[in-house]
Design brief:
Structural class: alpha+beta
Shape: globular
Number of strands: 10
Oligomer: single chain
Order of helices and strands: EEEHEHHHEEEHHHHEEHHE
Largest sheet: 6 strands, mixed
Radius of gyration: 19 Å
Length: about 300
């Protein structure tokens, strides 16, 4: 078999509203999720008796390639669905920060489903069915396209394709616990009743997108800053850059993003912050939004 490879792109929550809580404790959300060019890479190697995983890359150190790893869980779930006994050696090149609010592990699991769907001719519907038990963010990461997420992440509605703007990502290298952030969210007042944002059929420009986002927020940003005040420093650094249209935190943190009129403006902002980022050990990336290619294609 020809060596297969695919990319697991960073998921960014442009807004994130906590809208309720189920009796089982899971929080209900409303979020606009998009994808950036920054990505991990999954490769499928030779056949073997049982799926195995090698992890490399800048953020691979400390990750365990054991049965709890979402990549292996996804591979075995699709193998069982296909009825095949074939297994392969997998490699994860981990270039996205871990536990950072950009869906890295979920994106890796979804990427594994996509790439192995080319081996076993699985449909997108098959992948979405398998994705949901793997984690709340895995279904949206299967398609890697602008999507409105609701419920606990299982209600997905296509959103307008992103305009040709730029995005800057910065992670300050600190970890925050999602359960801790939600507990702090409850302690700080909890769920706010608000009007549900109405998304247009398309964005005419980045300014059009930002005008809507200014009517929204990330409900988890303040609780995350209480746990990791450096997030506020990152947001200030991004917002201070020329041509920045909006700065905000993604997910439960600690990665923050800035939106810019063009990818080049985002790159110029990253360059301007290079000295600060290097001194403080911040991870940065800048460029265009990722626009989806159909499931089942390289």
């Amino acid at each position: 078999m020809t060596r297969l490879q695919d990319t697991a792109h960073a998921k960014i929550n442009l807004y994130l509203h906590v809208t309720g809580r189920r009796p089982d404790g899971y929080h209900l959300l409303d979020s606009l999720a998009v994808f950036a060019g920054a990505a991990d890479t999954i490769s499928v190697g030779e056949k073997c008796d049982r799926f195995s995983l090698s992890i490399e890359g800048r953020f691979g150190k400390g990750l365990e390639a054991d049965d709890s790893n979402l990549v292996l869980k996804a591979a075995r779930a699709l193998q069982a669905k296909s009825g095949s006994h074939d297994a392969y050696r997998l490699t994860l090149k981990k270039d996205l920060p871990v536990a950072s609010g950009i869906g890295g592990g979920s994106a890796d699991a979804a990427c594994t489903l996509r790439i192995l769907s080319r081996v076993w001719n699985a449909t997108e519907s098959d992948l979405c069915t398998l994705a949901e038990p793997l984690g709340a963010d895995v279904p949206v990461c299967v398609r890697q396209q602008a999507t409105r997420m609701e419920g606990i992440g299982e209600i997905l509605t296509p959103a307008p394709e992103m305009p040709n703007g730029g995005i800057l990502l910065i992670n300050p290298g600190v970890g925050v616990s999602t359960p801790d952030i939600f507990r702090s969210f409850a302690a700080m007042g909890g769920i706010v009743q608000r009007t549900k944002p109405v998304l247009p059929s398309q964005w005419s420009s980045m300014r059009d997108l930002v005008d809507l986002l200014l009517q929204t927020t990330n409900d988890l940003q303040a609780p995350a800053i209480a746990h990791a005040p450096v997030i506020s420093d990152v947001l200030t650094a991004i917002q201070s850059q020329s041509d920045c249209l909006l700065s905000r935190m993604s997910g439960s943190g600690a990665t923050c993003f800035g939106l810019f009129p063009t990818p080049q403006k985002a790159r110029e902002a990253e360059e301007a912050l290079t000295q600060t980022a290097t001194r403080l050990g911040w991870w940065t990336w800048s460029g265009p939004f990722h626009q989806n290619s159909p499931v089942g294609t390289p």
